[in-house]
Specification:
By secondary structure, the chain is mainly α. The chain has 13 helices and no strands. The protein folds into 2 domains: 78 residues, Endonuclease Iii, domain 2; 105 residues, Endonuclease III, domain 1 (Orthogonal Bundle), CATH 1.10.340. It is 61% helix and 0% strand. The chain is globular, with a radius of gyration of 18 Å.
């Protein structure tokens, strides 16, 4: 389901930023999508840490086959060895178990997040092992569909901005924020289109 703000955001970005106007025109029918399940979105982000999109999907498929149903209770019940056999590192097994345990025992309450601002959600989720700021920002964009997230620590966004706004030269995070100022309040949408400039196949979490 397309975010309700998508068309308004496209118009704003197209007016304010010539680079984004070209990318948006090149992808007329593409838009952000959510898988709709909070636990699976966060679990996918853990599985995908520090590996390629293709490798992450292969590991996820094996993990899902082992789990049967990718839901907290099922993951809590799995032996660590079964998860390791699916291709997950020992660290990622610990992260997934911690995440599943917190969902299962109620210490994470997904229904609260829709009423919390972005930084409050970040603070709530970084308590989970393996969930750093980048991971939570992906969750804000892909699950909660927050419109104004600028993940300056994301390597893909850094690479796209350096290539398209700075002749390929490095940018500091402060430089990135300055370039992105005209995008507000639709930084998530701008980020999504800049990812498209690197890879036309949309990433989903």
């Amino acid at each position: 389901m397309k975010p309700r703000y998508w068309e308004e955001a496209k118009r704003h970005l197209g007016r304010r930023d010539r680079v984004l106007r070209g990318i948006i025109r090149a992808h007329p029918d593409a838009n952000l999508r959510t898988r709709g399940d909070a636990f699976q979105t966060l679990a996918r982000s853990i599985v995908g840490q520090q590996i390629s999109v293709k490798a992450a999907q292969a590991v996820w498929d094996r993990f899902a086959a082992v789990a049967g149903r990718v839901e907290p209770a099922a993951v809590v019940a799995l032996a660590d060895e079964a998860l390791r056999a699916a291709g997950l590192s020992r660290m990622k097994v610990a992260y997934l178990k911690d995440l599943a345990g917190r969902f299962h025992d109620g210490s994470l309450e997904p229904r609260r997040w829709s009423r919390m601002d972005d930084e409050a959600v970040v603070a709530d989720l970084v308590r989970v092992k393996g969930l750093g700021r980048w991971t939570v920002e992906m969750f804000l964009i892909f699950h909660l569909m927050r419109p104004d997230v600028l993940p300056v620590g994301d390597l893909g966004l850094q690479r796209a901005m350096e290539r398209l706004y700075n002749d390929g030269d490095p940018l500091t995070r402060e430089d990135m924020r300055e370039i992105a100022e005209p995008w507000r309040p639709w930084s998530s949408v701008a980020t999504w289109y800049l990812w498209r400039s690197l890879d036309p196949v949309p990433v989903e979490y």
